[in-house]
């Protein structure tokens, strides 16, 4: 079938322009495809977890002793390994989409089938400002109350601190991208493909992926869970309103870097990574910040005429990505 034929045009009209969470609901969609993709994803995550265990076991053999909590959580090598493993969620998401849905992995990142680099950097400016204000404000409040806002206790030489800062700045964007590709990318699109109505698919996908994202962070009290759940909902909203993962990646990366850099300098990285609780104030402040970022990014996307709708893959030859109301 040649591009632009009547049959292709009919397919394009039938499937219509769709938002990002429903890009996998096209001519190749079957009810069982998300389950195959999930099997690929679960198997891949199992392999990644096993690799982490092997790496720790090898390290203990080389050192001739068990690793300390600091070495497990916050040494430069451990932090690098953790970020690289999470970055591996990107090719894992590609594999889940290709093997499970029979769709090219490029459609995981945006309705354009590619990463929109200019938008990635432009849309990261607002989150950077908001996160700096909220983290700085909470830090000042904690300091005024006589607390250590960024923790303490890690004993490191200057070289180790510098190494950690380099690892944080260079690899945290990859870690953030990996989590966005997995939770807001493959997972949201797979869930969204089950629903005929785009709005219902987007909402259910956002709720399920935000829940999975929060639980994936391990043991936590209800307030910390709520904070991470709200973060996940915000990132899903950004993907829906902007047509891709770029803004969520920028938001996620900026948030983590702004939090990690001062904790490394203060000697509180081990404490920060091991925390299992949060205050109600943190959740309220973050919720306000998340809302500002979500609404601001949606407004920026609308003013720039950002493409946020596309016909599903396999019929894109007829219409490609199309503009739609933001």
Automatic annotation (TrEMBL):
Domain CAAX prenyl protease 2/Lysostaphin resistance protein A-like: 164-258
Assigned keywords, A-Z: Hydrolase, Membrane, Protease, Transmembrane, Transmembrane helix
GO biological process, one term: CAAX-box protein maturation
One of the record's GO molecular function terms: endopeptidase activity
Regions crossing the membrane: 35-59, 79-99, 119-146, 158-178, 199-217, 281-298
Lineage: superkingdom: Bacteria
InterPro entries documented for this protein: Rce1/LyrA-like_dom
Pfam family, one: Rce1-like
Name of the molecule in the record: Membrane protease YdiL (CAAX protease family)
